[in-house]
Write a structure and sequence with these properties.
By secondary structure, the chain is mainly alpha-helical. It has one domain. 34% of the residues lie in helices and 8% in strands. The chain has a two-stranded antiparallel sheet with strand order 1-2. It is globular and about 40 Å long. The termini are far apart. 1% of the residues are buried.
């Protein structure tokens, strides 16, 4: 939705994601994620990164980690 590109203050503004980030979702004992759901989340990340890297010009994420991957909703297993 927006970005700040001032050196030393880089930031991206996105829409609110009610489930937070992948790290919080995976490590929250209340979520009880099935292994298959966790693997599907990883697959979705791979698809997204592939799309970014195949863009013209390619987009390189440079800080890919679970804390930077936002979760819109958790689907039932």
């Amino acid at each position: 939705m927006g970005a700040c590109t001032t050196p030393g203050h880089l930031a991206i503004v996105t829409e609110f994601m009610p489930n937070g980030d992948v790290h919080s979702v995976v490590h929250n004992a209340q979520n009880k994620l099935a292994v298959l759901k966790t693997l599907k989340m990883g697959r979705d990340v791979a698809y997204g990164m592939n799309w970014l890297h195949l863009s013209k010009p390619p987009i390189i994420h440079r800080d890919l980690k679970p804390n930077n991957l936002l979760v819109r909703r958790l689907l039932s297993p």
